[in-house]
Design brief:
By secondary structure, the chain is α/β, with parallel strands linked by helices. 22% of the residues lie in helices and 24% in strands. Helix 3 (66-79) links the parallel strand 3 (56-61) and strand 4. The chain is globular and about 45 Å long.
Length: 158
């Protein structure tokens, strides 16, 4: 935590999940996005609970511990089996977006380091890239790129 954050404790009375209506009609639901601040994202129970309910996990950060958070999103994108986006302040650097694909050049969508900078990354997330074979018009390339689904995932569409 930063110096100004000492004494912080988790407090999350509810978890917001944004569903983009009509984006996954074959599943009769929309693409779902949820997130947390950097400190709450370290709660493994939160990410375990969300992995079956969200399709992308966003982490808003103001954190100096770049190495820990790089390692955390390296683990989360696979264990949650979804895109994970970490947005850290330009003061400290260390923002990234990753997906659970086999090869590193497919897995890393964006990754920036360095402090005292402003970086704007614009990228697309294909909402069906991690879905199962029953999806109409699913690109075969995504099927070859995906890692094996980890044990215990029960999210629809995988």
């Amino acid at each position: 935590m930063t110096k100004d954050e000492s004494g912080i404790s988790p407090w999350r009375p509810y978890q917001l999940i944004i569903e983009l209506e009509g984006t996954l009609p074959h599943l009769e639901r929309g693409f779902r996005i949820s997130g947390a601040i950097c400190y709450d994202a370290t709660d493994m129970q939160l990410t375990a609970d969300l992995r079956d309910h969200s399709d992308t996990f966003l982490i808003a950060a103001m954190n100096k511990d770049i190495t820990t958070f790089d390692s955390m999103i390296d683990a989360l994108h696979y264990h949650m089996y979804q895109h994970v986006v970490l947005v850290n302040t330009g003061e400290f650097g260390g923002s990234a977006a990753k997906a659970p694909f086999k090869l590193p050049h497919h897995r890393t969508i964006t990754h920036t380091h360095g402090n005292e900078q402003i970086v704007i990354s614009v990228f697309e997330i294909d909402m069906t890239s991690l879905m199962h074979d029953g999806i109409p018009n699913l690109n075969d390339e995504y099927q070859r790129r995906r890692k094996t689904i980890p044990a215990g995932i029960r999210r629809t569409g995988l």
